[in-house]
Amino acid sequence: MSKTHVTTTINGDAVEYLCEPDQSMLEVLRDNLELTGTKEGCATGDCGACSVSLDGRLVCSCLVLGVEAEGKQIETIEGIANGSELHPIQQKFLENAALQCGICTPGFIVATKALLAKNPDPTEEEARYFLAGNLCRCTGYDKIIRAVLDAAAEMRGAAS
Amino acid sequence: MLQVDLSVDLQQFSSGLESLQVEAANIRELLEQLDLRFPGLGKKIEKDMAVTINGVIYQDTLIEPIEDGSEIYFIPKIGGG
Amino acid sequence: MSENKDYKWVGTRPIRPDGADKVTGKAAFGADKNLPGMLHGKILRSPFGHANIKSIDTSAAKSAPGVLAVMTSKDLPDLPSEMAEAGESAVDFRDLSQNILAADKVLYHGHAVAAVAATSAKLAQEALKLIKVEYEELPVVLEIEDAMADDAPILHENQFTSGDSTDKPSNVAAKMKLPRGDIEKGFAEADVIIEREFTTPTVHQGYIEPHAVTASMSASGHADVWCCTQGAFVVRAMTAKILGMDVGKVKVTPSEIGGGFGAKTTVYLEPVAVKLSEMSGRPVKMVMDREEILRATGPTSASVIKIKLGATNDGKLVAAEGTLKYGAGAYKGSPMGPGCMCVFASYEIPNFLVRGFDVVLNKPKVAAYRAPGAPMAAFAMESVMNEMAAKLDLDPIDFRLENAVKEGSVAAYGPKFPAIGFVETLKAAKEHPHYSAPLGKNQGRGIGTGFWFNVGMQSSATLNVNENGSVTLITGSADIGGSRASMALFAAEELSISYDLITPLVSNTEETSYCDVTGGSRTTFATGMAVVKAAKNLVANMKKRAANTWGVEVDEVLWQDGQAVPPFSSGKNPMSMAEIAASAAKTGGPLTASASLTAQGAGAGFGVHICDIEVDPETGKTDVIRYTAIQDAGKAIHPSYVEGQYQGGAVQGIGWALNEEYVYNDKGVLQNFGFLDYRMPVANDLPMIDTVIVEVPNPAHPYGVRGVGETPIVPPLAAVAEAVNNAVGVRICDLPISPPRLLAAIDAK
Amino acid sequence: MGSVQYHAPQSLEEAVPLLKEAQKTPSRILAGGTDLLIQMRAGVKTPDMLIDIKKIPEVTGIEIGPEEIRLGAATPSAVMDESVELHRQLPGVVEGMELIGSTQVQGRATPGGNLCNASPAGDGAPAMIAAGGQCVVFGSNGVRTIPVEEVCIAPGRTSLADDEFIQEFRFPTPKPGQADAYLRFIPRNEMDIAVVGVAANITVDASGTCTAAKVTLGAVGPTVVIADKVAELLVGTKLDDATLAKAGEMASGLGTPISDKRGTVEFRHRIAGVLTRRVIQIAATRAGERL
After folding, report:
1. D162 bridge partner residues
2. For residue A151, what is the domain's CATH number?
3. Which residue, among C290, C669, C679, would best test binding to D if mutated, counting the most D CBs under 10 Å from its CB?
4. Which of D1, D34, D103 sits opposite A58 (nearest CB)?
C-alpha cells in the first residue's frame, strides 16, 4: 500500500501530500488536508457540493483523483475570500439570503465564480443551466439565482 | 362545569359516551376527574393526546387553567418535520 | 408587505449571524468533526428485502487488519416494546433499536445488521465483507394494498391491529376513525358527488448533507457525541435509552446541519458510534454515503387515498368521506394520524367520515418529512376540490372561499379555530396578477391549498450580557434555515439594542437547557417565545439595577432605546445597557436571564399556491413555468427566511409531483439509489418562485408568529396536477406525473 | 487488499510498457474518470492499475482541416463546447458530449471515455457514428483504425484489447449542405441519463432535396442502433412533414429497448419516433444554412 507523493498548489499555497492512488481529491482535501469547506453530498458527481476549480476548470472533486493534482492549481471555497474580505459572490449570497442550511453553499459559490469568469453577464436561464449540477434542497434556487445575478452585476460594475 | 367531547377513539374508555360535563380548574384536575369516571382515560390522554380548550391546542401541559364553561376536546399529539 | 412600522428590528432582513462562516467554508457540519486517534465505523446492510437472520459470525471481521470493534444487535440491551416520549413524538424504542441494528429479522434491503470500527474507512469497509450472515429469505411486500391482503406476508408476528380484538397478526399496525354528522344523509343532499382514488410514491427528504456522527466514550462512561441533528436533546434521549445509559452521561453537541426536513429528528448512527467507541476505547466517526441514505433513512410514506366529496349546486360542501392508507415502512408509525386530521381541516363540512390505516411494508421505516402526512392528503382532497369546482362551473378560489374555515369554525379534527388566515390567503391569491395572467398553448394553471397545525413543545433560552453591553443568546434549537437570525431579531427588539450586538448560539445538551427538536415549524414560534420571555426578564432586571443605582422605585424606570430611563424628577441621566453591564459587579453580579416554557397556542398555517406548467404533448414532459406561493405567516420575523421556506417547500412539492419516487424491483431492492436517478429538481427545472406573505397574527404569540416551515410542501402536489389537467385535459391521480405516465394518459384520453 | 497503482505516461512511447503490463494486470484506462471513479468506489470495477492518458499530447485537442477533423479522445467536453469551429462543423457531436452531466462533469468527461464506458445510453456515440467517425486505437503493438460503431459490442463491453485505448477520433469534414444534430430525452432538464437519444447527419442540395443521411439511436438497444432504413427513406425527399412523420414512425419500431427505472419499452419506442422527427428537422435546417 504505497502512497504517492503529490506536489500541487491549493489556493495559491504550494502544498505537498501523500495519498493513496485511489483516494479522490475530495477525500484528500477533507481528510488529509483538513480543508473541510468542500462538502461531500453524494460522491458520484451528482450534487456539486464538492465543486472545486482545477486549473481554472470547474470540477467535482469527488470525480478527480488526488494523484491527478500533481503540478496543477486547485482553488477551493477556502480560497475565494481575500483574507477577511468576502468575495462579492459571498457577500451577495448573504445579502440575498441565498442559503438556508448552507451545506450546498460552498459548491454554489465556487461554481458561480467559474460561471462569472466565463460569462460576466449571464441571463437567468444561463445561470440556471450552468448551475444545474449543484443541488440545493432548501431554497428552491430562487434566492441563489438572484444572488448570482446580483453578484454578476456588482462585479461588472466594479470592473468597468 | 366544562363541556367535554370525546372522539371515537376515546369512546372505548367511556363505553361509547360521546360527551360529558366535568368540574375542573386546570388540565391536571380535568384528567384526574376523567380518570375517576373512566379508569385509564385520563392517563391515555396525558400520554398520547393534546387538550384543546375552546379550540386552542395545549400539548404537554398539566397546569394550564381552564375557565368555567369552556369546551374541551382531545386530539392526537402533533409533531412535524 | 410584512414590514411593520411598529417594530425596529422584527420584520427586517439583516444578514444572518452564521452567514460568513457558511459562505467561506468555515462552518463545521456533521462530517467535519475529527478527533485524534479516531476510528471509522461502517455498517453492514441487508442484501434482502425481508429475511430471517439465522446467524451472524463476526469472528473473521474481528481479526481483520485495523479492526478494533465489531458489533451487532446482541451488543445492545433487549428493550421491551414501549411507546415513550422522544422529544417530538412517541416512538417504540424496541423498534428504534432494531431499526438501528436488526435483531432476528431484516425488514428491508439496506437494513443495518452489523457495524465495524477500524483505523480507516477503507479497512472498515473491507472487514464488513468478512462478516458471515446466514439469512432465510422471505417474500417481500412493498405495496400498501398487498400488505393489507389476508394472505400477505406478515412482517411482525407479534403485531396486532391496535384497537381490533383479533389474535391474527396483521401488517395494519393501527386504524383511526374521525366522524362527524351523518354522511349518508349528507351525500343524499348533494347535487354532485365525486369519488376518486389517489396514490403517491415513497419519496425522500433529500437533504444534501449525509447523516454523520463522531462519538467518544470516556473511561468513566461519559459519552461525547457530535452529530448533525434537528434536536440534540432527542439524540441524547434516544442514544441513552437504546444503550441503557443515564441521559446525564450523554453529551450531544449539534454541528451545523445540512438539511433535515424531519428526517434528522431520529437516530441511525449515534448509538452505534457510541457503542463502538466504548468497545474500542477510541473515538469513532461514522458518515453515511448517499446510497445508504436513500436505502435506509428517511423516506416518507407512500399512500393510497380515496376521497368521496358531495356538494350542492350552489357550491356548498355537504359530505365527505376519506380513506387514507399510509405505508409506515418496516415498523409502525406512518403519519396516518396527522394525515387524517388534515385531510378535511381546511373546509367546513357538516358530515364526514375519515378512516386511516397505518401499514407496515418491506421498506425503510419512514421518518418525518415536512408536514408529515399532509401533502398526500391534500393532493387527494385538493384534486377533488378542483374537479368539483370545474363540475360546478365555479372559480376554484371562490369555491374554496365558500367553504373555507375561519375563526370559530370547528376543525375537522375537533377543536374550534382561533384567528386563522385561510380566507385572507385565498383572497390574496385571487388578487395576485399571476392568477389572471394569460396562458399559451399547451400551458395550464392550477391551484392547491395546504394546511398544517404547527406545534409548540418545549424550549428554553438564555441571555448573557457581556461587560460592554453586548449579548450572547444561547438556545438548544438547531438552526436549519436561519433561525439564529430570528432569535437575534427578537432579542434586539425586546432589548431595543442593535441586532449586531447579539451573538446567537446553538449549544450542546450540557451547556443549555432543554429544547425540543427544530421541527413542526416550532423554532421561531416556541424558541422565539422563550427568547422574548428571557429578554423581558433581562429588561426587568436591568431596570432594577438602574433603579438601585439611582435610588428610585423600579416602576418609575422606563426601558427605551436600549437604555434605562429615570423619572424626570430624579435629575439623573439615562443608563445605557453598556453602562448597566459595566457596573453589574456592584449592582448584584453578572447580568443573565433565562426562560423556559412549553409553548402553547401554535397557530395553524394556511397556504395557497398557483402553478403554471407547460406540457410537451408528444413526450409527456412537464415544465413548471411560473409559480406563486402565498401563505399566512402570522408575522414574518425575518421575511427573507420566511420566503425561503415557502420557496423551498414549494419546490420539494414540485419534485414530489413530477419526478421523485422510489423505484423498487420485485425483490424489494431500490433501483434509484443516487441523486442521478432519484430526480430532485435542479436549477434549470424551475422558474423563480414568487411569494406573498400574508400576516394574520397568531393571538397566542407575543409577535403573532405562526410556524411557516411545513405548510409550503402541502399545496404543490394538487396545484401541479391541476395545471397539467388544464393544459392537456387529463387528470392524473397517481404521482409522480412522470413523462411515461402522462404520455400514456394523454394517449388514453 | 492491494492498492491501485497509478501511472500517467507523458507520451505514447511511455504508455507502451504500461499497456504491455495491462495484459497481465487488471487495468483501466483513466481519461475523465466520471464513470470509472464511481464504478471503482461502488466496487463494480476493481483495477490494480490505472493508466491516466490525459498527459499524452496526442490524446487531447481539436484540429479542423479541410478534409478531416481530429478530436483527441481525452478532450474534455467543456473544451469541445468552447470550440467555436467544432460547433460550426459538428454541432451534433458537440451536443452529444455537452449534454453529459453537469458543468462540473463537463470539465472532465471525454468522448473516448464516454464511448468506452459502453453504456447503451451514452450520449456521445450516436452523433459520432452518424458523422462517420473513425477511432484511432493505440495499442502496445501499434495503431489501428476502426469505425466508432465497432467499439461497443455490449453494455459495458468494448472490442478494444486490454492493451489498447482510443487515441483520437477522426471525422470527415462536413461538406457544404451537410450538418448534424443530437437530441435526447430526459425527465428533468439536466443531470439525467438519456431515456432515448437520436442523432441525424443530413446532407441537402440547393433544391432542399436530401442527398445523404445517417440516423442513429441510443438507449433503444444494447448498442447504438443505426437506422439505415430511415436514412434510405429520407434520401431523395425534400424532408417534408409527411416524410419526417414516416421517419419517426419507422424509428419508433427500431431497436430492442428495455423497461427500467428510466423508462418503459413503450415509452422508449414512442420517444424514439418523436426525437427522430425533431432531430432530422434540426439537422436539415442546419444543413440548409451551410449551402
Report:
1. none
2. 1.10.150.120
3. C679
4. D103
Range of the domain at D11: 5-51
Q: Which CATH class is domain C424-454+603-749?
A: alpha beta
Tens digits of residue pLDDT in B7-41: 888 888 998 898 999 999 999 999 999 999 999 99
Mean pLDDT taken over chain D: 96
- Residue A11, domain CATH: 3.10.20.30
What is the DSSP secondary-structure string of C70-133?
Answer: EEEGGGS--PPP-EEE-SSSEEEHHHHHHHHS-SSEE-STT-EEEEEEESSHHHHHHHHTT-EE
Q: A2 by DSSP, 3-state: which?
A: coil
- pLDDT one-digit tens code per residue, C476-512: 999 999 999 999 999 999 999 999 999 999 999 999 9
Residues D46 and D75 in one domain: no
Residue C606 to residues C122, C335, C423, C454: CA-CA distances in angstroms?
49, 19, 9, 10
3-state secondary structure string across C527-564: HHHHHHHHHHHHHHHHHHHHHHHHCCCHHHCEEECCEE
Query: What confidence tier does C5 reach under pLDDT thresholds 50, 70, 90?
Result: low
**Coil, strand or helix at D86:** helix
| Phi–psi pair at D11, nearest 5 degrees | -150, 165
Question: Among A67-76, C83-92, C515-524, where is mean pLDDT lowest?
Answer: C83-92
- With a CB-CB cutoff of 8 Å, which residues 335-394 of chain C face chain B? 337-338, 341, 368-372
User: What is the rounded distance in angstroms from the CA atom of residue C579 to the CA atom of residue B35?
Assistant: 56
- Is C119 in contact with C39 (CB distance < 8 Å)? yes
- Name the least confident of B4-18, C247-261, C587-601, D224-238: B4-18
Kindly list the distances between the CA atom of residue C238 and the CA atoms of C242, C377, C382, C436, C574, in Å, as whole numbers in the listed order.
6, 30, 37, 51, 50
Residue C2 has pLDDT above 50, yes or no: no
Residue D88 vs residues C361, C444, C489, D68, D134: alpha-carbon distances, Å: 55, 37, 56, 14, 20
- Indicate if the alpha-carbon torsion angle D147, D149, D153, D155 is positive or negative: positive
Q: Would you call A104 and C208 a contact, using CB atoms and an 8 Å cutoff?
A: yes
- CATH (one of 3.30.70.100, 3.90.1170.50, 3.30.43.10, 3.30.70.120) for C33-138+209-296: 3.90.1170.50
Q: Could you report the per-residue pLDDT of C520-564, keeping only the tens digit for each? A: 899 999 999 999 999 999 999 999 999 999 999 999 999 999 999
Output the CA–CA distances (angstroms, integers) from residue A40 to A101, C31, C270, D250, in the order listed. 14, 9, 19, 46
Beta-carbon separation of C13 and A35 below 8 A: no
Give the structural domain span for A34. 4-79
The arrangement of strands across the sheet holding C563-565 comes to: C558-560, C563-565, C575-576
| pLDDT for the residue numbered C689 | 98
Chains B and C touch (3+ CB pairs under 8 A): yes
ipTM: 0.96
Q: What is the pLDDT of residue C6?
A: 84
| Structural domains of chain B, with CATH | 2-76 (3.10.20.30)
pLDDT tops 50 at residue C3: no
Inter-chain contact A65–D37, Cβ cutoff 8 Å? yes
Do residues D87 and D154 share a domain?
yes
- Using a CB–CB cutoff of 8 Å, tell me whether D107 touches chain C: no
H/E element holding C745? helix C739-748
Q: Of C381, C408, C406, give the one whose Cα is nearest residue C396.
A: C381
Give strand ranges (E) for chain B.
2-5, 19-22, 49-53, 56-58, 71-76
User: Which residues, in sequence order, are CB contacts of D217 under 8 Å at separation 6+?
Assistant: D126, D196, D197, D198, D199, D224, D225, D227, D251, D254, D255, D272, D276
Per the document, the length of chain C is 749
| Residues A45 and A93 both lie in one domain | no
Instruction: Specify the number of domains making up chain A.
Output: 2
